[in-house]
């Protein structure tokens, strides 16, 4: 298990919401509804009076954290030798293109593809223009 949480691997620590911010409160609300056994449609419905962008951002970050954790547990079993192609079954092969290093869709081994994908997603989440973190403090009650 120690290898799964090695920082040199693709596992990344969870991105945290700063306590005292509106997004932190929304995150707590989302966690509570997801853990309560309620139906998922109701769990992701925008709470009354909340900003839709903040609500979506909270769910995107939570989803990334969960996928990252799952990927961290299986990455040692999927090596360039055992997973030479990033595929979605025998009919689909995924190719990487990022317009920087890979200007054309390029076939890559699954671990390399996943590393690039997780890095790209993390860059998007950390981009203040897409997911601003300084969204106001919690409303005083």
Q: Characteristics of this structure?
A:
two-stranded antiparallel sheet, single chain, 2 domains, 2 strands, disordered N terminus, disordered C terminus, 4 helices, 141 residues, mainly alpha
Outline the secondary-structure elements:
Elements: H1 22-35, H2 40-43, H3 52-74, E1 95-96, E2 106-107, H4 110-126
Antiparallel strand pairs: 1-2
Helix pairs in contact: 1-3, 3-4
Return the domain count.
2
The H-and-E topology, N to C, reads as: HHHEEH
Low-confidence stretches: 1-7, 137-141
Helix count from the secondary structure assignment: 4
What share of the residues lie within helices? 40-55%
Largest sheet: 2 strands, antiparallel
Instruction: Quote the distance from N terminus to C terminus.
Output: 43 Å
Describe the structure.
The chain is mainly alpha-helical and 141 residues long. Helices cover 41% and strands 3% of the residues. It has 4 helices and 2 strands. It has helices at 22-35, 40-43, 52-74, 110-126; strands at 95-96, 106-107. The protein has a two-stranded antiparallel sheet. The longest helix is centred in the middle third of the chain and has 23 residues, at 52-74. The chain is elongated and about 50 Å long. It starts with 21 loop residues before the first helix and ends in a 15-residue tail after the last helix. InterPro entries: MOB_kinase_act_fam, MOB_kinase_act_sf.
Concise account of the structure shown:
By secondary structure, this protein is mainly α. It has four helices and two strands.
């Amino acid at each position: 298990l120690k290898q799964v949480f090695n920082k040199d691997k693709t596992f990344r620590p969870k991105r945290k919401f700063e306590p005292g911010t509106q997004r932190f409160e929304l995150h707590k609300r989302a966690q509570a509804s997801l853990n309560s056994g309620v139906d998922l449609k109701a769990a992701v419905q925008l709470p009354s009076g909340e900003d839709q962008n903040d609500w979506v951002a909270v769910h995107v970050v939570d989803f990334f954290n969960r996928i990252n954790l799952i990927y961290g547990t299986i990455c040692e079993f999927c090596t360039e030798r055992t997973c030479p192609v990033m595929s979605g079954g025998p009919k689909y092969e995924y190719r990487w293109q990022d317009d920087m290093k890979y200007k054309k869709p390029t076939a890559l081994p699954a671990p390399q593809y996943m590393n690039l994908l997780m890095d790209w997603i993390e860059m998007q989440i950390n981009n203040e223009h897409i997911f601003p973190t300084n969204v106001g403090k919690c409303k005083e009650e």
